[in-house]
Structure prediction request, 747 residues.
Amino acid sequence: MEHLRIQLHGVVQGVGFRPFVHRLVSEYGLTGTIRNTSSGVELELEGERATLEAFVRALPERAPLLALIEGIETVYRPELVGYQDFQILTSLREEKRNTLVSPDIGICPDCLRELLDPRDRRYRYPFINCTNCGPRFTIIRDLPYDRPLTSMGRFPMCPDCEREYHDITNRRYHAQPDCCPVCGPQVFYCGADGRRVPGDAIALAREAIRAGGIVAVKGLGGMHLACRADDPAIAARLRQRKERDEKPFALMCRDVEAARKLCAVSPAEEALLTSYHRPIVLLKKKEPGLWHLSENRSLGVMLPYTPLHVLLMGEGFDALIMTSANLSDTPILYRNEEALEKLRGIADGFLLHDRDIQTRCDDSLYMVLDGQDYPLRRSRGYVPYPLRVPGSRGGILACGAEQKASFCLSRGEFVFPSQHIGDLKNYETLSHYEQQIRHFERLFDRKPELLVCDLHPDYLSTAYARERAEAEGLPLVQVQHHHAHMAACMADNGLNGPCVGLVWDGTGYGSDGTIWGGECLIGDYRGFTRFASLRSIPLIGGDRAVKELERVAFALLREAGCDTAGIPDAAHWETMLAAGLNCPTSSGMGRLFDGVAAILGIKAVASYEGQGAVLLEAAADEGETGRWPLAFEEGAPLRWDWRPMIRTLVAERDADVPAAVLAARFLNTLLDLAVALCRRAAEASGLRDVVLSGGSFQNRYLMERLPGLLRDAGFCPHVHSRVSCNDEGISLGQLMIAEARRARERV
Ligand code: ZN
Ligand code: ZN
Ligand code: FE
Prediction:
């Protein structure tokens, strides 16, 4: 007999780990104890040496689905305790916390079966969960992950639940949020006036929705507004009440079959839809239409991920509009009182419950490209799962960008990207951002010793980083926006060496103080050169041109020497341009999309960011193979001169070539441009690895074609799969660059 102490690090709490170990211990006939510590899980075991060794080998092989064992330390000790059985000890709080936190997990098949089984004691109970599913990140206040430190702390278990909780053979053995109708949270329904309505809350909500109402529904990480998806008048009412103009709505479909009625679903898309992450997946509409839901060719679809959603959808609806309940870009609402107050006049009813959401977390948004998951928004169901960055020393807080804010905190080799935060220009969003930074620092027990932010002097994330660096006497690194995009895609793909970065987005502050965004960089984490860009585009009226696409169209036409007669404000804009009055220049690819969309008559004034690009993609004729020749201005950086393209485009438009054909030719020209730039960059550098990042690569038309074209041309293209290509991914890149600079300066 020998005594073995085993320490496990990684995602080992809140994922059914202790029960799993308990069963394994019984199987191997060992005795001892297990306890959660703030740095993971600690086991004290006694048995024969060979058995103990076999047990240690079995641990990682048979660990639960969500567990991620990152380290196993074993120490044999000379003296025996003489355990009689195996016991789970109460958690100890420790100074040093290395534990990870599990993301929220969509309802599992076992719980789903019980939910719909009339003989089960949790039949139709909307908070059924087990060690394999249920709320995690959104209900955790602090570590260790034990019921009193979650929103479930105020619901003491009934004797039945208590029995399950302590029964090793039970699926709910040591499931912290375990509960039942007797002891757990309750769902209730309020009418438009916020008063509780007696009766079956879910049935009441369903009736209100069926009758055409808009009902606020409390989910895992915040409130949704739900209504029928099959009636354009209801969708229009929701848009009007929510002031959501034209942005696409997400749908919740009852199941994959229901999703298939509206959209094509590939096997990889089905796997992602039904995965425990349950993100919104952008699926291609079966046929054009459903414009009241989305003006794009795709629809954002998710499946029910909580038992409450299952019950709401289950017997009534194939698909519901399920849009985040927030007002004009403020963060998603997540508290009952707040929802009742702020959604007054918007919601006709409220399906709420008394389990508090501790941390708001929006739905994640993904696309599947070539069978690979492609994140656009990494949030609920993924956060706060870390990325591992071998060699990282930790202690860096990367503050991200501004409009799609996120941050990253590193602790040792783990980098923890935050959930989707939103646009910091909004006051509530900014305080949510600051609050989440503090929450992550407490949860992962790491105070930053180095801060990193964007180069943009006016980003609120820059202001945050500066103030904090000053207040706490911390060093601050500022990173150029597109370099950070490039580094994010490198880290996403585990690349360390130099490569070509094709970074196309709307706006980013350049090293020279001008606005960049159509960039081809060569470099690595340590630095970059700006190899190529676009010929600059004047933005008439600065930021106004970002919304008023017709201003960009005018500038493109004028620069290209095309006829601008008949444009209403031409004379005024001409004066501004001629005088250089409030006309900063931009090399943003997003601006070119905007301008072309306006020239083609697709959109003159955008109602949301990126709308020009979205509509061009939606308009493009997929079968069109035409393209326009490219022209360059030699120099450093090399500049793509888009003026000949604009002239051809205008000539073809005036010859009545349909907009769908022209939109496709424009996108095909960009594909040619991408390949041509990589060729030139490779000639200059000898590099074949190409990373694709920046918000313009959210475009499905480009992304379905570009990696293949690059491979055909002999390149090794790398796309995002773990963080978003848009500004949400920036914080990861910032962190990598700061880590590289710190390493270099110490050398
Ligand atoms: Zn379950
Ligand atoms: Zn109970
Ligand atoms: Fe960007």
User: Anything to note?
Assistant: The mean pLDDT is 94. The chain has four domains: 2-88, 187-366, 386-493+729-746, 499-718. The domain at 187-366 is CATH 3.90.870.40 (DHBP synthase). The pocket of zinc ion (ligand 2) is lined by residues 157-158, 160-161, 179-180, 182-184 (CB under 6 Å).
